[in-house]
Amino acid sequence: MIGLGFREHGGLDRVELVEVPDNEPAAGEVRIRLRAAAFNRLDRFVLAGIPGVPIERPHVLGSDGAGVVDAIGPGVNDLAVGDRVLLNPGLWDATCPACVAGLECLCRDYRIVGEHTQGTATESIVLPRRNVHRIPSSLTWEQAAAAPLVFQTAWRAIRTVGAVAPGETVAIIGAGGGVSTAAIQVARQAGARVVVVGRSLDKADACRRLGAEEVLLLTEEKPLDRTLWEWSGKRGIDLIFDSVGSPTVPRSVRSVARGGRLVVIGATAGPLVQIDLRTLFWRQASIRGSTMATSHEFDAVLAELVAGRLAAVVDRVFDWSDGRAALARMDAPDLFGKVVLRTPG
After folding, report:
1. Which of 64, 66, 309, 329 could make an S-S bridge to 86, C-beta 3.0–4.6 Å?
2. Closest residue by Cα to residue 135 from 265, 263, 308, 5
3. Whether 35 and 76 share a structural domain
4. Is residue 337 included in any domain, yes or no?
């Protein structure tokens, strides 16, 4: 079976078509013939190599995917060959105390498709039945593939970990990436006032169409903390959604309101930060980490996607032969939404 991936860690020049073994579904498993896969910033980290995360090589990239069921293992009685499905890329053991309590993303053996296992940019994939979800024909393959990772991440970070309330202010740090476009919609649907901050206003209109009240420009003269402090009338922001890391987190901390929450879901620009703890205790604010979601949260956000109340933003769709260009597109300044690859399935 052919997939888009790499044999050795490195840059985009390492990306190539690789051959990986075909798999047959075991008991409780389903094989999906993929029609579309979507890339995340995670794929670039996996390609470069993540310290402490050993992977099988050659390795296929991609965490998100959608397609049709083409084989069913023993014990799976509620899916049929030919069903249209999308995949939940979070993997858990279903037996540890966290899983039993319904907190699967806290599982001691939690893994992500495409990071800890072979990915979705291939012909087919085998997953546990609990990771496979039917979708209606109203969702295109591209829309379905683009949604799972970013929307579950945004949903848990904003609604559960961030505990957003109607009327609160939510600041999304960075505009254009898939998780940002999902976070805008999730926060707005929760009744929050949403502000997006970035280094360009080129995407302002697109952000407003998704539900942002305002899009603010960051400059050397007006950095993040000063920009948000002025916009909030020197009150601060109730919930800040930050996936950037070291360049922004210290200033995000200085931007929170009394009782505010900074939710960190990534560190794309660096993981190490230095903050002033006095801001946290004096404002009784908190920094919270969040990644992926529970199965219940995934079901909830999928219901919103199926109903059309949330929608994945697709930046561009690439053919199978343009896989390297698809990954390179993630560096484009005008990127807005998810990059999707049509798979050969």
Report:
1. 66
2. 308
3. yes
4. yes
CA distance 180 to 40: 12
Answer yes or no: do 320 and 263 share one domain: no
Q: Could you tell me the two tokens for 297?
A: 């949260």
Strands 64-72 vs 29-39: parallel, antiparallel or unpaired: antiparallel
- Same-domain check for residues 76 and 213: no
Residue 96, pLDDT above cutoff 80: yes
Among the listed residues 210, 262, 212, the one whose alpha carbon sits nearest the alpha carbon of residue 237: 262
User: Do the Cβ atoms of 42 and 114 come closer than 8 Å?
Assistant: yes
Q: Are 232 and 258 in contact (CB under 8 A)?
A: no
Q: How far is the C-alpha of 326 from the C-alpha of 341, rounded, in Å?
A: 7
CA dihedral sign, ordered 249, 253, 254, 257:
positive
Tallying the residues shown for the chain, one arrives at 345
Mean pLDDT of the chain: 96
- Domain hosting 139: range is 2-147+312-342
Using alpha carbons, select from 147, 138, 169 the residue that is nearest to residue 237.
Answer: 169
What is the rounded distance in angstroms from the CA atom of residue 30 to the CA atom of residue 344? 19
Encode pLDDT of 111-130 as tens digits: 999 999 999 999 999 999 99
What is the tens place of the pLDDT at every residue in 275-307? 999 999 999 999 999 999 999 999 999 999 999
**Element holding 305 (H helix, E strand):** helix 295-307
